[in-house]
Amino acid sequence: MSAHPRGVAVGFDPLLERVRRFIQRERGGGYAVAHFDVMEDGHAGLTYGFDLCDAKGEAAGRYVLKLAPAGVARRGNTDVYRQAPLLRALKGAGVPVPDVPWASPDEEALGVPFIIMERLPGRVFMSWQPHESFPRDPVRLRDIWLQAANLLAKVHRVDWRRHLAGWEEPRPLSLELDRWTTVLRHAQEPEWHIAGTSLGSALAACMPDGDPVGLVHGDFQPGNILYENERANAVIDWELASIGAQGLDVGWLLMMLDPLAWHPDWRPVAPVGKEELLAAYRRAGGPDEARLEWYQALAQYRLGSIACLNVKLHRTGKRTDPIWERFALSIPSLFARGLDLVTLANSS
């Protein structure tokens, strides 16, 4: 889930022509780009899909292009290129992620930095509105979530000092908290800002220390996992990844399950309990995390702040996406449940 404006890409037709020229330089003049279009799943912003055909017109690969936003400083999730060394390292470490055959940190080829990844088979499980191809049977849906817990453990077991040496320095929790405090300022409704500020202050007053540090996906949930025939196939959308407290990911996943976090009209389809999910994560080798109530509260603060920003962008027409009106329903409950969880964290 993007937390910042993505800016504006180069125009569609000029972009397509640039991609064609780039592919022909890289693969030869006989290759053609086909079915170039904006990706639909996940409200992906500056993300495009395309196919390659060889000189005989036969399929030669399917790809996903992610662009950096034009006119925006390259840092954090707007630094698209930083995902290239990350994904390549994870691929080498055995984590199921897309291969990255092409990437560039400069603007020469496509007008902005970019990465081009292989397009793996499968479909994400959009937790609030699962595609009709997914089952509705609770037992099979439960397995989708337990597979996510297993994959999260695999991500968290990556030896980041070995595989990601030099990629990024660990981010202190204080900086993580400050980041979303800045985003919260975009709240249009005064009560949202008041509730969010109260939660942020409560989190800052009882910050954990000494929890496991490692690779953090930043938005780990079934909506960022490709499932093929109900089997988890790959983890995607690494734009919020960092090195930091891995409780960030665990708390985020627990937030998705918690019915008290959500408005009754906008709750994820998640027929699995907290303890069952955590047991699956730990059986798969996920590290023990302390004070998970605090980390879930932080997740609720993060998503509530993200929703405040994206609702503003939608309502002002700067980046129209009606789905954020659905998330707006849950902003009060995200912050309120977060405050309850901080209280639980302090009493445990």
Detailed description of the structure:
The chain is α+β, with helices and mostly antiparallel strands and 348 residues long. It has two domains: 12-118, Phosphorylase Kinase, domain 1 (2-Layer Sandwich); 123-347, Aminoglycoside phosphotransferase (APH), C-terminal lobe (Aminoglycoside 3'-phosphotransferase, Chain: A, domain 2, Alpha-Beta Complex). Helices cover 42% and strands 14% of the residues. The chain is built from eleven helices and ten strands. The protein has a five-stranded antiparallel β-sheet with strand order 1-2-3-5-4, with helices on one face. A three-stranded antiparallel β-sheet has the order 6-8-9, covered by helices on one side. Strand 2 and strand 3 (59-67) form a beta hairpin. Helix 3 crosses helix 8, helix 5 packs parallel to helix 9 and helix 6 (190-205) packs parallel to helix 11. It is globular. The two termini are 31 Å apart. The model is unreliable at 4-10 (pLDDT under 50). This is Phosphotransferase family protein. InterPro entries: ACAD10_11_N, AGP_Transferase, Aminoglycoside_PTrfase, Kinase-like_dom_sf. Pfam families: APH. Residues 58-295 form the Aminoglycoside phosphotransferase domain. It comes from Bradyrhizobium campsiandrae.
Give the end-to-end Cα distance, rounded to a whole number of Å: 31 Å
Unreliable residue runs: 4-10
* Proportion of helical residues: 40-55%
User: What's the rounded overall pLDDT mean?
Assistant: 91
Number of helices: 11
Report the strand count: 10
- How much of the sequence lies in strands comes to 5-15%
**What is CATH's topology name of the largest domain?**
Aminoglycoside 3'-phosphotransferase, Chain: A, domain 2
The backbone outline, from C-alpha atoms, is: globular
CATH class category label of the largest domain? Alpha Beta
- Largest pleated sheet: 5 strands, antiparallel
Structural class: alpha+beta
What is the string of SSEs from the N terminus onward?
Answer: HEEEHEEEHHHHEEEEHHHHH
CATH architectural category of the largest domain:
Alpha-Beta Complex
- What's the name of the CATH homologous superfamily of the largest domain? Aminoglycoside phosphotransferase (APH), C-terminal lobe
Write down the domain tally: 2
For the biggest β-sheet, the strand order reads 1-2-3-5-4
Radius of gyration: 20 Å
Domain Aminoglycoside phosphotransferase: 58-295
Organism: Bradyrhizobium campsiandrae
Protein name: Phosphotransferase family protein
Pfam family, one: APH
